[in-house]
Amino acid sequence: MEKIVAKRVSMLELFYDLIFVYAISRITMMIHHPVNGSLPPRIYLEFIIVVIFVLQIWLYQTVYINRFGTSRIIDTVGLLISMFAAIYLANNINTEWQLTFQVFNLSVALTVVNLIFQYSFGSATHLKKNRDVQAFVITLSLEFFLVVTGLIIGYQYGIYLCIAGGLIGFLMPLVMYRMFRPEQVNFPHLIERLSLIIIITFGETLVNITHYFKGAIYSPLAISIFLGVAALFGIYTLLVERFLNHHQHTRGFIAMYTHVVMIISLLSITAGIIYMTDEEVARLFLSCFIVANLIVFYLCLWLYSFYNQRHLRFNIGDFTVMAVILLLGSLGIVLCRETNLGLMSAFALTNMVEFGLIAWKLQRKKAL
Q1: Which of 14, 46, 136, 262 maximizes the CB count within 10 A of its CB?
Q2: Half-sphere exposure of 200 (CA within 13 A, CB side)
């Protein structure tokens, strides 16, 4: 197979990502504070919806650059407009949707119409001749129509149309899957962009755990938290840098959708670590919340391994061993929930063993 030449990530793309550093921090604040010892399902659902809204916008811009961007004037201007709208979008993220309904969704509408313009006129191809462009324009146009209609109707009922617009923008490409051509995707560039958004999310985790790093530098709790987060990041990094086949023709759907879910689970784990300082939080809820999101994160990683190099693909035995370790570790987190040190020690041990297992598999394959 012909090796794909990786498209270089531009400085403007990295600058664009900085806005999402702020957006992710604002999103995390939505679930910072538990209510009556737990996290109300309504608030958590709102959190998930906002993550989807924000990341689908980031993804559409990233996918445009990945498939069609050539640093022309239309690409630069389009990205700058998206950046402008993203600042307003990020600044209006909170749990009081009624207060920011208009500005937030106006920002979404501006971004979406800007994306429609980019895909229609910046792709250097005629709309009727490129099924990829057709699929993107149809999806974005439907999202734009629903969001604008929701804005016109007003918050009381319009909010449901706006939510529907965001969810359609996120999910409709799955329905139109066959319209997208793998050869138009620059997979190395896509992997790099997705890795950067995960790094931003891990950065948010590190920022939010810093209050545990006070006093003695040898604090067992701080060490456990750090080792757990570092091992989890190490697993992701090892998979991306050493296991994945970066040069393959693929639509990249598994990569994109698993990363959205991974970000939701990572931010949730971060919130769980923050909750440990709140004495009113129910320990069973806390441990189960961390465990559930840790399992989701690993499931997404295992799905992402679909892109592994042929000789480094996980077999049934590998998945079985990793699943057993994860289940035993999850049980340990629940059983050790009464103390923060016990809970985080089980969390750290689970991730360290998982990291050691895939590192061992890598070394074993290299030795063959």
Answers
A1: 136
A2: 27
Q: Return the pLDDT at 179.
A: 85
Q: Is the pLDDT of residue 127 over 90?
A: no
Radius of gyration of the chain (CA): 21
Q: What would the two tokens of residue 142 be?
A: 């439907």
Do you know the residue count of the chain? Answer: 368
With cut-offs at 50, 70 and 90, classify the pLDDT of residue 115: very high
Q: Are 82 and 114 in contact (CB under 8 A)?
A: yes
The CA-atom distances, in angstroms, between 16 and each of 21, 78, 206 are 10, 11, 21
Which helix (H) or strand (E) is 189 found in, with range? helix 187-209
Reply yes or no on whether the pLDDT at 32 is more than 70: yes
CA dihedral sign of residues 286, 290, 295, 297: positive
Q: Indicate whether 267 pLDDT > 80.
A: yes
**Closest by CA position to 57, among listed 94, 88, 33:** 88
- Token look-up 């999101």 returns 293
Letter for the amino acid at 289?
Answer: F
Alpha carbon of 207 to those of 21, 152, 216, 267, 276: distances in Å?
Answer: 11, 39, 19, 12, 16
Range picked from 115-124, 214-223, 346-355 for highest mean pLDDT: 346-355
Separation between Cα atoms, residue 204 and residue 270, nearest integer Å: 8
